[in-house]
Amino acid sequence: GKGRAHALSHGTGTRQTVQEFFDGYFKKEWYGRIQDFVKGHFNGGAGLRTIVTNGIGANDQFMWSLARMYNANKPASAPTWYHVTTARDGKVLAEKGLIKPANTLFIDISRSGGTWEGVEVGMRSLGAGFNKRITLANGGAIAAIGKAAAKKGNYEPLIIGMSPDIGGRNMHRKTTIYY
Fold first, then answer.
1. At CA 32, angle to CA 103 and CA 174, rounded to 5?
2. Cβ-count burial of 155 within 10 angstroms (0-12 exposed, 13-18 middle, 19+ buried)?
3. Distant-in-sequence contacts of 30-35, Cβ < 8 A, 24+ apart
4. Taking the mean position of all CA atoms in its chain, how far away is CA 166?
5. Is 123 exposed, middle or buried (0-12, 13-18, 19+ CB in 10 A)?
6. Phi/psi at 80 (nearest 5 deg)?
7. Which of 82, 92, 81, 78 is nearest to 128 (CA)?
8. Where do the H-state alpha helices sit in 9-115?
């Protein structure tokens, strides 16, 4: 019934829906900063051709499907979205010429900041020159990679801390992809 549908709209272990969290915090605090980052690093946004999200576990639970839906329905001028969970995924995209450092935004996502798969992707892609990055992590190696990318690119790092009730690898509540 109606009560059950309402209960299902909330994340596990939270009284707040993902939409409430997005509108009440994420959009107010970060949406404008992200837009400014993209405009500042990609010729007002027009130079952004690809977005690569890097995350595993809860952060990629629906990522593949969302990327496919986005890519199937995006305007021709909009950037293409790829999702990677291993360093091999990123290497294949680069070898095929699908991503280039000058026009690619990496978004690294790891609540702990230490997920080994994400760290490996971050380190290898940074070593390959992909230094335009937004980082969502509560510290660890992923945040350090975001800071290193900013230093290489001569900009202030955009590192977004994640709410402590965002689940890790085996959780799904308020996973960052929903923002």
1. 90
2. middle
3. 30/160, 30/179, 33/158, 34/134, 34/158
4. 14
5. middle
6. -85, 140
7. 92
8. 18-21, 32-41, 63-73, 87-95
CB distance 95 to 117 below 8 Å: no
pTM of the predicted model as reported, rounded to 2 decimal places: 0.82
CA distance 143 to 108: 9
Alpha-carbon gap, residue 125 to 91, rounded angstroms: 8
CB 54 within 8 A of CB 120: no
Terminal CA-to-CA distance of the chain, rounded, Å? 28
pLDDT at 14: 55
Residues with Cβ within 8 Å of 20's Cβ and at least 6 positions away in sequence, in order, are: none
The predicted structure's pLDDT at residue 58: 59
Q: Divide the 179 residues of the chain into consecutive groups of 10 and give the mean pLDDT of each group.
A: 42 61 84 95 96 78 85 96 89 91 94 87 94 93 96 94 63 50
Amino acid at 138: N
> 50: which strand partners?
80, 104
Rounded Cα distance between 11 and 23, Å, is 15
Residue 160 is classified by DSSP as E
Here the tokens at position 20 are: 């409430």
- Joined tokens for residue 143: 């945040």
For residue 75, the tally of other CB atoms under 10 A from its CB is 5
